[in-house]
Amino acid sequence: MSHVTYKVVQHDGGWAYTVDGVFSEPFPNHAAALAAARRVAAEQRVPGRTEAIQYETADGKWHTETADGSDRPETDVQS
User: Fold this and answer.
1) Which residue, of 26, 27, 66, 69, has the fewest CB within 10 Å?
2) Neighbours of 14 (CB within 10 A)
3) Is 54's pLDDT higher than 90?
4) How far apart are the first and last CA of the chain?
5) What Rg value do the Cα atoms of the chain yield, rounded?
């Protein structure tokens, strides 16, 4: 199982949360950014539906796989 860490940091004159170098929208204060990070971390753990997905690779080949809706990452928030 994968693990995702949301980090609350100062950003763009306010506060934001970041995951793998990608920033959220800015929030006016640390508390607001922390609350948002906790909300999205909890949402990411919610299972979805198992579905078939199709995608094309760079070499032009199409693939079909089953995406397990219960395969959700563990998450945590660092403030």
Assistant:
1) 66
2) 14
3) yes
4) 23
5) 16
Count of alpha carbons within 13 angstroms of residue 28, beta-carbon side? 0
**Whole-number Å distance between alpha carbons of 38 and 77:** 6
pLDDT at 71 over 90: no
Residue pair 51/69 in contact (Cβ under 8 Å)? The answer is: yes
Q: Tell me, what DSSP letter sits at residue 4? A: E
The DSSP code for 27 is B
Strand pairing category for 3-11 and 74-78: parallel
pLDDT confidence tier of residue 10, bands split at 50, 70 and 90: very high
Both tokens assigned to 34: 């922390």
pLDDT-derived band of residue 15, with 50, 70 and 90 as boundaries? very high
